[in-house]
Amino acid sequence: MMEIELPPAKQSQQDMDLIDILWKQDIDLGVGREVFDYSQRQKEYELEKQKKLEQEHQEQLLKEQEKALYAHLQLDEETGEFIPVQPVPMVAAAAVTQPVTSSLQSKPEVGQELYIDECMKILADTFQYEAPQMNFHQTAMAPNSPIDTSQNFLPTEQQPVPESWQNTTTNTENVQDMERAWEELLSIPELQCLGNQIESLIDLSLYPNQEAMSETSNYMFHNPLPNIEKPAEDTAPVFSSDFVDTFASNVPTVNTNSTFNVESFCDDIFTLIDPKVTNVPLTDNCGQSFTELLNEPVDITDLSLCKAFNGNSPTEFNDSDSGISINTSPCATSPGQSMGSSIYGDAHYSYSDSEMEDMDSTTETAENPKETFTVPFTEDAFYALSPIVPLDICFDLEAQTPSEKELPVKPGQSKTPFTKDKALSRQEARFSRDEQRARALKVPFSVDKIVNLPVDEFNALMSKHQFNEAQLALIRDIRRRGKNKVAAQNCRKRKMENIVELETDLDKLKYEKEKLLAEKGEYNSSLQLLKKQLGSLYMEVFSKLRDEDGNKYSPQEYSLQQTKDGNVFLVPKAKKIEIKKEQV
DNA sequence: CACTTGTGTCATTAT
DNA sequence: GAATAATGACACAAG
User: Fold this and answer.
1) Percent of residues in chain A assigned helix, strand, coil, to nearest 5
2) What's the CA dihedral at A200, A204, A205, A208 to 10 degrees?
3) What is stated as this protein's family in its record (predicted)?
4) Cβ within 7 Å of strand B: which of A 299-358?
5) Which amino acid residue lies closest to nucleotide B9, measuring CA to C1'?
């Protein structure tokens, strides 16, 4: 086959003719004319280009879907794996779940900017639907407010309306969309706490207002919702924009271009929706005055505790070998649950102790450094713990100095080098875990007391209180674990002492043996000396013996023998043998 | 990355 | 026979 290189530019007529001729020669070889046709090749090139673009587009979509998936996942700090976020029970169980991708696809952004935009949009979306029940008026806005919403949002009537906002045809659709929006919003771990609180506040029909805005009007305003546009429909409530404006104004210096701090975002939301801050008469759809509602006690503890517990993400107090565990994270509870109810009151007993141990480890490792409840537990501290926790304790943690935030360090992130206190800290960690469990079940005395009290006093103490099964099981477990822990420590101590003792004995015995061996050597040498002396004495005595003729006795023929009575005889050696035989 | 050490916990046995 | 202590075995974290 001939090789033809097509120039990038259009061939000249001469070239084309040449190609034509050559092609006619090659036609038998099955080569198509289009091989030499530049325009044909250009078409192919464009087709390829289009395919590439399509492929890129598809890849982008895939990436976005992946991102949306990660929005539903939570990064396990310990393993680095993504684990599914615990689903937060929503308004209705039948809520339609829709992939977050739907809302993400239009804004391919990165990182938390996307995150917050997403949240904002969902928030605005949600409150838009909520709005018909709550009449908010733009006039509530302070005229001198430095926040110029018109700079950021067009007036409702002028706002261009994206198609996605022009729905809300039926109530059921609204409800479903709202539920979906909430679900999406609450699938963001950091905002799960927000979900409950806002939910509760919606129930109370408490919404921010002029004062709230004026209180926070010193905040610099950056539009955190560049992608949010307001619906222009007449039916569209005014509230959504108001709320979004207010909300936006209350988010201090949230710049979408900078790193977004979710914690502070959550805090700001709380500040925004805190009824104490937004203490202005409003009317709900029932016409009831908000001031009346505000007079009702609102358990701020839940807010603070929520924050505190949310710091752990899904923090769970699981315990008891008796198959009892509790899920006390108020943020994970159903929004339908009363906000004022105790955070421990709705404990769910669902995990066995082994499961709990697993989760305990995650709880321990996932302990947020900003966790609120890290006060060393004592009984006094327990009783001193007021049901009302000042908001700033929980919300001002961001402002705390590092030393103030000193907290149990994650086992994997231990800042301090290994010291002898390690055992102590581990013990403290265990105690604090049991303490958490005890507190979760409202056990009214300390773990220390449970473990260390003598039987009688312990029984007396137990009889003073009425405990449910879970509490009893937990107390039993705590006492058993504590006792066993001490027993194990003692056992190991004893074991070590025994080992030391045996080693000492061994050393002693070795010393004794050496001593005896030395003694034996001494005895042996003295024995040898005695033998030697005896030999020389024998020879001396034998040499002095004479027969009748005055001749010496031959030592080869005679020997001296001593009988039992002490007499010494000179015995001929042949005779000596006989004597020996007689003795035998 | 295998090994060691220290610790908590559980199951079982001893008291 | 229940309560408690003792102990072997195991898992886990950290060095």
Assistant:
1) 55, 5, 40
2) -70
3) Belongs to the bZIP family. CNC subfamily.
4) 321, 353, 357
5) A481
Q: CA–CA separation, A193 vs A208, rounded Å?
A: 19
User: How far apart are the C-alpha atoms of A309 and A253, rounded to whole Å?
Assistant: 26
Nucleotide C7: nearest residue by CA–C1'? A491
A424: nearest nucleotide, CA–C1' criterion? B7
| Distance between the alpha carbon (CA) of A374 and the C1' atom of B13, Å | 39
Mean pLDDT of A320-341: 34
Q: What pLDDT, on the 0 to 100 scale, is given for residue A546?
A: 87
Q: Are A394 and A368 in contact (CB under 8 A)?
A: no
Cα(A63)–Cα(A57) distance, integer angstroms: 10
Q: From CA A211, how far away is CA A272, in angstroms rounded?
A: 11
DSSP structure class, residue A289? B
Q: How far is the CA of A176 from the C1' of B13 (A)?
A: 61
| Cβ contact A266:A307 at 8 Å | yes
Q: How would you class A404 by CB atoms within 10 Å of its CB: exposed for 0-12, middle for 13-18, buried for 19 or more?
A: exposed
Coil/strand/helix, residue A525: helix
Q: Is the CB of A364 under 7 A from strand B?
A: no
Q: What is the Cα–Cα distance from A317 to A334, expressed in whole angstroms?
A: 17
Question: pLDDT per residue over A27-37, tens digit each?
Answer: 333 334 433 34
Give the model's pLDDT for residue A519. Answer: 97
State residue A283 phi and psi, 5-degree precision: -120, 140
Positive or negative torsion for Cα A432, A433, A439, A444: negative
φ, ψ at A570 (rounded to 5°):
-90, 115
* Residue A542 confidence (pLDDT) above 50: yes
Distance B10 C1' – A169 CA (angstroms): 61
A24 touches strand B (CB under 7 A): no
Query: What is the per-residue pLDDT across A102-128, written as a single tens digit (0 to 9) for each?
Result: 333 333 333 343 444 444 444 444 444
Confidence band of A392 (pLDDT split at 50, 70, 90): very low
Strands (E) in A9-49, as ranges, are: none
Q: How far is CA A245 from CA A132, A209, A213, A253, in A?
A: 17, 10, 9, 14
pLDDT beyond 60 at A39: no
Is the Cβ–Cβ distance between A182 and A195 less than 8 Å? yes
Predicted pLDDT at A521: 97
- Pairing outcome for strands A558-562 and A73-75: unpaired
pLDDT at A99 over 50: no
Tell me which of A439 and A90 has the higher pLDDT: A439
Residue type at A174 in one-letter notation: N
Strand C at less than 7 A from CB of A426: no
Q: Give the amino acid at A462.
A: M
Please list, in sequence order, all residues whose beta carbon lies within 8 angstroms of the beta carbon of residue A552, skipping any fewer than 6 positions away.
Answer: A543, A545, A546
Q: In the complex, which nucleotide's C1' lies nearest to the CA atom of residue A420?
A: B6
Strand B lies under 7 A from the Cβ of residue A486: no
